[in-house]
Design goal:
Number of strands: 5
Radius of gyration: 14 Å
Oligomer: single chain
Strand order of the largest sheet: 1-2-5-3-4
Largest sheet: 5 strands, mixed
Order of helices and strands: EEEEHEH
Amino acid sequence: MTSKTNWDIRITEVPVGRDILLLLTGGTAHIGAVATAYFCGKAQEVQVQTIDLPGHREQELAAYMAEKAAEALGCTVTVAAGIHYDGINKAQILDIVAEAKAVFNTYLTKAAKER
């Protein structure tokens, strides 16, 4: 899903059987963190496992998105996230995170209606 955003944040869905892989990118695309959310145990609670590369900060965002998508879509969801912009400040980072969440929420609303 591509939309007009200030920071060119993109979410791409790749169906994997009944599960979903989401690629979250912006700026110089790469893989900085991966999070997988899945249902576990008798209560079928969502669990999240993450991997992040040293020096990258996308882990929290990837985990948030994987968990919310798994809950909403009822399947295992993996989010591979990589957003990179040179020379940005803390305020710009917060703006990028807010934009990524907005793009994600738009994706999730549409995906949930289609399932």
